[in-house]
Amino acid sequence: MTTIYDVAKKANVSAMTVSRVINNTGRISEKTRQRVRKVMEELHYVPNSMARSLVLQETKLLSLLITDITNPFYTTVARGAEDAAKQYGYRLLLCNSDEDLAKEKDYVEMLLSTRADGVLIAPAGDMSAEHLRRLEKHGVPYVMLDREVPGIQSDTILGNSRDGARQLVEHLIGLGHRRIALINGPRQVSTARGRQMGYVEALKLNGLDIDSGLIVEMGYKQFDATGTVNKWLELPDRPTAIFAANNFLAVGVIQTLRRMGLRVPRDMSVVCFDDLGIASELNPFLTVAAQPAYQFGSMGIQFLIERIRGEAGPEWRKIILPPELIVRSSSAPPGQG
Amino acid sequence: MTTIYDVAKKANVSAMTVSRVINNTGRISEKTRQRVRKVMEELHYVPNSMARSLVLQETKLLSLLITDITNPFYTTVARGAEDAAKQYGYRLLLCNSDEDLAKEKDYVEMLLSTRADGVLIAPAGDMSAEHLRRLEKHGVPYVMLDREVPGIQSDTILGNSRDGARQLVEHLIGLGHRRIALINGPRQVSTARGRQMGYVEALKLNGLDIDSGLIVEMGYKQFDATGTVNKWLELPDRPTAIFAANNFLAVGVIQTLRRMGLRVPRDMSVVCFDDLGIASELNPFLTVAAQPAYQFGSMGIQFLIERIRGEAGPEWRKIILPPELIVRSSSAPPGQG
DNA sequence: CTGTTAGCGCTTTCAT
DNA sequence: ATGAAAGCGCTAACAG
Lengths: 337, 337
Description:
Two copies of one chain form a homodimer. With about 325 residues, the first copy, chain A, is α/β, with parallel strands linked by helices.
C-alpha cells in the first residue's frame, strides 16, 4: 500500500504538505498542489481512513441497528438511512438484532470497539436500556428509531402507534365490527403497548367491551398464528375482524385463515400496522396504518449527524411521524359468518 | 476513552501484557490474567478496533455493494450476508449503488479508503469492470453476486438466468401462449442478456418466431411500463403474455395493465424472474423463477472470507444456484382477449 | 507556504 | 512470563 510518505518523497515535499493537499486545508501554492496531485495519481494513492480515524478520533462510521432488514418497513428505513448517510459522507454499518436482546448486545459491543460515531437503533425491547446506557457511557450518540425505552432519554424518531391503532380499529368499528381481536407484539416493545392502548381506546370510545380473550401477545417476527387464530375461531362469539400489530403478524394471520378455508375479508377482516412495500403495489389488498419508513431512516440519520456535530442543542428531540390509514380490501363489513 | 495503557498502569503490567490478555496470545500467568481482566472491567475498557486494524492491516470490515436494498431479492441477500458476516466475526458495510455506475464508483473509492477486507458486489453493469479492476489493483478481494462482467475473473455466485427464463417462457408456451413479450433489464447487465437468451431459446425450440417488437429494454428499477405496455396492446397481433426480467418490472407491468382495465391473467399472463418476498406469502399470485437469495448472500460472504483467509485455492470459483419455477395464478391459458 | 515533532491505540519483534 | 522499542498511516500544533 502506498502511504502519504511515498507520495511526499516522490513529490519532494513533506508528508504534511500532502496531507494538506488531500484535505484542502492550509495554504498551498498552486504549483506544489498540482505536483502532489499528479504524484498521488501516479502512485494510485488512496488515503487510509483507519489511520485518519485514529488521530481524528472520528470514524465516519454510523450504525443502523434494526431488528430485521427483511421486514419491508425496516428495508425502507435502511434505504432512507443509507441515502442520508451517503449524502453526509458517512458510511453505514448494517446490524440485524433479530428482535433478540443477546444479538443486540453483541452488536453494541462490536460498535463500541468499532468506535462508530453514532448509532441509529430500533431497540429490541425495554431491556435494551442497558445497551443504550452502555453507548451513553462510552459517549456514542444514538437516535432511537420506531421505539421508545422507558427510562431512556435521547433523540427519537417515532411513529404514532396509539393513534394509528385507534384509526384502524375505528375503521373496523365503522364497518360494523363489534368483536375485534388483537394479535399484538411483545409488551416489552413500546409500539406494542401503544398499539394496544389505541385498540382499547377505540373500543371504549365506542362503547364496546374489552375481551381479554381477544388479545394475544406474540413476537413481532412470529409467523405462525395458527394456535391463536384457531382458538378465536372456536369461540361461541367469535371475532369478525383481527387487528395485527404489524405486517408480518398480519401475513401470518391471513395465511392461517386461508389454510382453514376462511376468506379475507368475507369471513374475517384483517388490518395491520405498517405497509408491505412492493406487495402493496402489486396487490393493494391489506388495510394498513402505513408509516413513512423512508423518513424514519433519513431523519434518523440526520438527527444523529447533527448530534455528532454538536449542532443539536441540549434538549432531546422527539419527532412523531403520523401514520396514514390506507383502506384497502382486506377490511369489509362483517359478513354472515 | 480508556486505552490499553490505562489498563496496564492500573494493573501494574506493560501494555503488551494487556494486549496478550485481550487476544489470548502468548503465555500469561493465571494470576496476572485475572488481575488484568478485572482492571479492564473496572475501567470499562473496550479495545479500539481502528488502532488494531492499523497495525494488523485488516479491518474485519466487509462491504455489501448491491443495487437496491429495497428489492426483496437483495433484501434477502443482505440478510444472508449479514448473518454470515456476523458468524465469522466480520462487520458489514451497506452500500446501495442504485444501478448507477457513478454511485458505484463513489462507493468503491470509499471502500478503498476504508480498507475493507473484501467486497460482495452486484455490479451495476458491464462498465463496472473498471471498478472491479480498481479493487483488484488495490488487493481487495471481491465476490461477484448475481451478475457477471465480461473480462473479469473472480469468485462468483450466480443464478441461472438463461435456464430460469427458458422455464418461464416454456411454461407460458405450455399454457398455449404464442405471442409472448419480454420486458427486459438493460443489456449492460449479464442477467438481462441471459434472460433474453433463455427467452429466445424457448421460443425457437418451440418453433415460434422472435418478434423484436415484443422485446423491450428498460432499467431494472424502472417502474413505469406504461409506454411499452400501451404499444403492445395496440398491436394488431398483440401478446397474450409478458415475461418481465425482474420482479420490479413485473409489478410495473401489472400496475399498468390494471390501470388500463386489463386483468391478470385473464387478459394477460405475467411471469417474472425473482420472487417478491412477503408479498408472495400474503398473496401467492405471481408466477416466478425464484432464486435462493439468502444463499446468494451467505455463500457470497463465505466465499469472500475464504478468499481473504487464503483458504480459497488459486482458481476462481463460480457457483450457479438454480432458480425454482413457482407457478402461481398470474399465468393461465390465453383467454378470448 | 512548508516542514518537524509528537502521538492517536495498538501489536510485532526482540530482549530479559 | 513479561517488557521496551518501534512503527502501522495519518494530522495537530508549532516553527520557520
